[in-house]
Structures are given as structure tokens and as C-alpha cells.
Amino acid sequence: MAGLVARKDLRVEGRGRVALNQVLPFAFIVMVMFAFALERLPTPANTGDTLLELVAPGLIWLATLFSLLLLVQRSFAIEADDGALDALRVAGVDPVALFLGKASALAVQLAALEAVLLGAALLLYGTELRAGGVVLLVATWLTATCGLAAVGTLYGGLAAGARGRETLLPLLLLPVVAPVLIGATRAVEAALGIEDTAIADGWPWFGVVAVFAVAFGAGGVLAFGPLIDE
Amino acid sequence: MDGAVIELVDAVAVLGRFPALAGATLTVAPGEILLLRGPNGAGKTTLLRLCAGLLPLARGQGRVLGFDLATQRTAVRPHVGLLGHRNGLYLDLTVAENVAFWGATAGATTGEVAAAVTRLGLVGRLADLEVRRLSAGQARRTALACLVARRARLWLLDEPHAGLDAAARDELDATLREATAAGATVVVASHELERAGALATRTVDVVAGQTRDAIGGLGAGRPLSQPSDARQPSDESDGGLA
User: Which residues, including other chains, have CB under 8 Å from residue A110's CB and lie 6 or more apart?
Assistant: First the structure.
């Protein structure tokens, strides 16, 4: 059933192309605006990196978080537009399957978005990949994506029935995802060798992201049903 | 009443703080087509949502298809089809994709989904149109096809004729009669009394959150086992209906 829900969400995105035509350009514009805002600031001393290179990992994840808000709102808007969430409840769709299905579809969209944002960082900020950090980079990318998809789906379900959900979601979600922003940024800094950080220094931060992903994955499985039922 | 599909006794359901159902008593036998009639805000929609397991039973007793609404309201849902004011469709998906999705949630085969699409006349180019491009009537027919594909044992329909043209209304009525002939039970809330009354085997009035058997009304037939016409609507409950 989770696969059915995920395929449905991805098919809806394939038709509406909101992520492709709106969220992706939005994320790219955020990256460009960061570049405009930061390009004239002086490069820190004692480093061969430009300021934009130094802050690129954090900017990638910030742009990802802003885009996550739009993707989550879209994910639940398609359920709210014509009362489909009620229909899903009446159809007896297992809330766990619903959570996993919606989170999976969200993760696929996020993963694609993050790949594009990394490409944008390479292009705009002069970020360079290093071969030794690829494993850490990919592990962080996948784990953070799963964690963000889980927490986004959980809080999207929480806000779905609330008045003023468009403004409520950022207020609820952004503080909660701070550990991912910090952990994933530090891990990617290590993977990219920002300020000569050793790759080994990134793995504890990857652990933070992994704990977050597991916690909110489990929390979503347990809490999503009661949340959408109230 | 043994074997009743719906059995409510003094059922109370609240929306926020207000009792939208204020002691409704109702028994529906298998195979009935029951018409609920009453003014806006009387509690018809709330009664349907209570029976679908979407609202908790605040007080009283309620059983639907043998499931206790106080303790098993989520268990009743897969056996119920609810068509509310909104259609419950995905606007970016086509007619065929919507029916296939909702049919799949109930384990319907490809053949059953195709039969449901054909039964509601959603064939040819129409089947491949996105729902957002449909007229209101076509979207309503798509929602009905989803119900047919789900093979629900109890159909709860809120203004099902709304937006349909004459031919589609006839098609809907025929579909509901077929469903009851196949063993389903139908409860219809409607303001279109002539059309829905001709379809119904019995009519119940819903007034201020309470039910009373219609006397001499359209479609009136079998009496309620526990009529509640002794109760009078209170101003408080009337004012609180959503």
C-alpha cells in the first residue's frame, strides 16, 4: 500500500510538475541570491577557499530546507484540494503505509533537488568535490534526505488540518530540522574538505543525522495515524 | 435490531464544542436505500461522517456493519464508501487513474476497475482527462465510479445528485439500485426530495441533530424500530450545527 501511495504522489507530481517548474527554480534562485549577498565579503585569512566555498554546504542545506517546506505543503495540498485525505481515511488505508508512501515520494523529489543544488554549488560557488569524501557525501545526502522526508511528512500531517497551515508549517518544522542543518552541513564540509577538515571528522556529524532520521522515521510510523485522525 | 447495518441509539457527535448530532436514534436494515432529509445544518452530514467512522461517538451507542463506533470506528471504514460534498479525487490524475487508485486501495482487480469506469460512462477520451478539466457532473461521476470500484457494503452519499445532468442522475439511481440488489445498503442525504424520494425505500427526517421517521413523506416505507420523535430539538443544539 505504501508503494501505491508513493506512486500516486509521484504521478501527481509528474502531471502537475510543481517541483520541477516551481520548487526547483525557487531553490536555484535562493542559491543565486546567496551568491549575490556573499560574493563581496572578504575571504577569511589563512585559507585557500573563497567565502562562498566555505559556506556552500550550509547554503545547500538551507536551500533544501526552504524547498522542503514547499514540497511538504504541495504533498498535503493534493490531499486537501478535493477532500482526498478524508477519502483515504474512509478507504481504510493504513496510516503507516500512508506515512511511508508519502515520505518516500517526498524523499525521491528531495534527493533529485539536492543533486541539482550540489551541481549549482559547484557552478556558482566554485565548490570542488574530493574523491575520498564521496562515501561520506552520498551517505549524508541519502540519510538527511530520508530524515527530512520523514519529519516533513509528519509535520505536514500535523499541520494539514490546522487553520493557517501555510504559515504554521514553517514555524513548526524549521526549528525541528536544525539538527539536520547542523549535522549535514558539518558532514558535507568534511566530505568536501572545507578548511582542510578531515573526512573522519564528518562521520560523527553523519551519526547525528542518522539518529535524527531514525527517530523521526519511527516517530512518524507511530504518530502519523493519530495526527491525521484528529 | 439483529443484522442491522446501522444501529444508533441516542448518538451524540460533537463538532468543536457543539453537538451536531444531539441524540440521534436510527436503524437501517440491509439492502435499504434510506433518504435523510432536513434543513441545512440539521446534522445530516455529521450523521454520515459518524457512520463512516470519521467522527467519534461522544455519547450513546452506535454500531455500523457490526462494528462498535465507540471502540472500532477505524475498523468500519474499509467497508464503507462515503461521498461527501467534495469528491475525494486527485485533480492532476486522470479519471482512469483516480478510479484505479481508489479501487486498488480496496484490492479491486483491473477488470473491476474497468467495469466501474464503464458503468458510470467514463469511457473513451473522458477516461484519459485530468479531473481538473472535468465538469462538476463528470467529476461527481468519477467519484461514484471510485465507490463502485471499492465495492463498499454501505454507501453514504451526501447530495449525490448535485451537479449531475438528467441522464447522469438516472445512471446514478440505476447504479444505487444495482448496488443494493448486490447486497449493499445506501444512505442518501439530499435536498432533492423528489428525485431522492423516488429512489429511497424509506425516509428519515433529521432536525436539529435528531432523527424522526418521516410520516407520509416521499419514500416512507418501513418504520424505525426505535423512533425518536418524542424528542424536541433544542435551541442550543440547533445553533451549534455545522
Answer: A64, A67, A68, A71, A145, A148, A149
Q: Is residue B242 domain-resident?
A: no
Per the structure, how many domains does chain B have? 1
- Looking up cell 445506501, which residue turns up? B186
CATH number of the domain that B181 lies in? Answer: 3.40.50.300
Query: Using one digit for the tens of pLDDT, what is the confidence trace for A62-76?
Result: 999 999 999 999 999
- For residue B231, being part of any structural domain is answered with no
Residue B122's pLDDT is what? 86
Closest listed residue to residue B32, CA positions, set B54, B63, B3: B3
In terms of CA atoms, which chain B residue is nearest residue A15? B92
Report which of B117, B199, B187 is spatially closest to residue B152, judged by C-alpha positions: B187
Q: Tell me the C-alpha distance between B158 and B143, whole Å.
A: 12
Residues of A in contact with B130 (CB under 8 A): 15
Q: At residue A178, does pLDDT exceed 70? A: yes
List the domain range (segments joined by +) for residue B180: 6-213
Helices (DSSP H) in chain B: which residue ranges? 44-51, 73-76, 95-105, 110-119, 136-150, 166-181, 193-199, 235-239
Which residues in chain B are closer than 8 Å to A91, comparing Cβ atoms?
77-78, 102, 105-106, 150
Whether residue A97 is predicted with pLDDT greater than 90 in this model: the reply is yes
Specify if B220 maps to a domain.
no
Which residues are within 8 A (CB) of B87 and not within 5 positions of it... i.e. 6 or more apart? A82, A83, B131, B139, B140, B142, B143
Contact at CB, B91 and A89, closer than 8 angstroms: no
pTM, 2 dp? 0.84
The C-alpha atoms of residue B232 and residue B162 are separated, in whole angstroms, by 30
pLDDT of residue A149: 96
How high is the ipTM of this complex? 0.83
Nearest to A83 among B87, B97, B104 (CB): B87
Name B153's bridge partners: none
CA B215-B217-B218 angle, to 5 degrees, is: 155
Judge whether B228 lies within some domain: no
Q: Is the pLDDT of residue B23 over 90?
A: no
User: Does A86 contact B82 at a Cβ distance shorter than 8 Å?
Assistant: yes
Strand ordering across the sheet containing B67-68: B18-28, B6-15, B59-64, B67-68
Helix axes A165-176, A51-80, angle to 10 degrees: 140
The answer to whether A69 and A114 are in contact (CB under 8 A) is no
Predicted local distance difference test score (pLDDT) of residue A98: 94
Domain boundaries of chain A, sorted by first residue: 2-229
Q: Do B53 and A16 touch (CB under 8 A)?
A: no
Phi, psi (rounded to 5 degrees) for B14: -115, 145
